[in-house]
Amino acid sequence: MKYSTGLISATALALLCFNVQICAQNGGPRGPGNDGRPANNNIDEQLDILIADLNLSGDASENTDFPAIEDPLPQLGRTLFFSKSLGGGLDSACVSCHHPSLGGADALSLSVGVDAFNPDLLGPGRIHSSGLPLVPRNAPTVFNSGLYTEGLFWDSRVEHLGPNNRGGIRTPDSAFGEADPDAGDSLLIAQAKFPVTSTEEMKTEEFESGSSNNQIRGHLAARLGDYGAGAGELSPNVWYDAFAEAFGSNLPAQELVTYASIATALGAYEDSMVFVNNPWKQYVEGDLNALSPEQKAGARIFLTTTRQGGAGCVSCHSGDLFSDQRHHNVAFPQFGPGKGNGANGAADFGRERETSRTRDRFDFRTPSLLNVAVTAPYGHAGVYSSLRDVVRHYQNPRNSIEEFFDQGGACTLEQFEQLFDCAELYPTARRISRSAVTNLEREQDNGRSRLRPLRLNNREVDQVVAFLNALTDPCIEDRNCLSPWIAPESELGPDGQQLNAVNASGELL
Q: Counting CB atoms within 10 angstroms of each CB, which of 53, 150, 307, 424 has the fewest?
């Protein structure tokens, strides 16, 4: 496709005048009838202009080097990712919440980490021994996580600091705004140090109870390295050989099998999971037949601002990553155990938990939309099971919240619908959700919010959803294509603790 640069030209405005009032104000052409659509309806030309003005290449991984999954470090990282030995109680692994066959996540609204009835059952049907999930947030996909340059987690509690990210990496082990000297060389390495310290995700209550994060990590490293506090905890144990091969080193176990080495390998594995070869990329690169007419129409709506008659999705889901990597309040309904905020601790204040600024309350990081069609359910609490529900939420967040709770709230979700006392589980959820949407409306009134009310008809909603489906890399829907990132089910790992996942029907994932 041909690209232009600079501000939207008069020709571009003519092509993009969806709204009759805006077209009339700017002298743009009007199509036949009274819908105000442009006379020139060549959608490929319209998208060409949008793509150029938004400086899109179609490839979020462009000009970035990522390790190949076949390289030694990602191979060790994969083995670690699938190992329950990194779980304090030997019953959970990184993959428990982030399986490649489940879109790089777990297909649950709220994750179930430790103490599952069946530790090897992942996805729908995975149940905590108490009956309720204890993890208060939805698991983000691990796919393309190496493409984030600003921060990780819903609240960016692991984040780069300073101009051009030269200020180091801040983590929960350091004060807000201060670099963690032990963070490592990348966001992914830093991030890999924290799920193992979470009581609900991987640590368990009993393992290293009352210990510091570094003590917890040190014990896990010693467990794998068969020294110190972890000596003799695993049998068999050939982890040292795996580390020696991956790092090309014969250092003593205490120096080689450290948590820094573990995090480095895990980061390399996650960094290799780049899945961006989708129909949209092919279209931007010149294959005009890569998208259907419906997907093209959806792309135009998505990429066009509300002022020009579009949906303005690109205001937050910007760039080739489809994320501005910033934090916004979009007022998705809240429910679940919460993060300890609010009067009874059942709320989740999002980014405010990190910044301590009330203006950041209910703000969460904009997720990338690459492969979004396979990462349901959606939102920081996993409240919406379909992309259509998400798009409709943006049209009227307050009505969407009321509908969600009027129809049963969490009880409408697959993970909770069979619980006999579901209706009584989270009695303050509606009130907390109303607080979030009140905050959003206040931000909209004072011009702080990028979320503007949408005016889409049913056909346009379908078109936007069709476009979002065009952001899916076919590889992640093909088990054979994904197999290099999945530990071979014929193996048990260096210590017999490999998690060979099954679904609720007992079939291997």
A: 424
Helix axis angle for 259-271 and 213-225, nearest 10°, is 90
- What is the Cα 167 distance to its own chain's centre? 24
Q: Residue 365: phi, psi to the nearest 5? A: -65, 140
Distance, in Å, from the CA atom of 305 to the CA atom of 314, rounded to the nearest integer, reads 7
Place of tokens 């379909």: 386
151-152 sheet: strands from edge to edge = 151-152, 158-160, 169-170
> Token pair of 354, please?
């990190």
Nearest one of 111, 155, 113 to 136, comparing CA atoms: 111
Q: Which residues contact 197 (CB under 8 A, 6 or more apart)?
A: 203, 213, 216, 217
Read off the pTM.
0.92
**Is the pLDDT assigned to residue 32 strictly greater than 60?**
no
User: How far apart (Å, rounded) are the C-alpha atoms in residues 79 and 4?
Assistant: 47
What is the spatial distance between Cα 469 and Cα 292, in angstroms, rounded to a whole number? 11
Spatial distance between the Cα atoms of 246 and 499, rounded to a whole number of angstroms: 21
Q: What is the pLDDT of residues 299-311, one digit of tens each?
A: 999 999 998 889 9
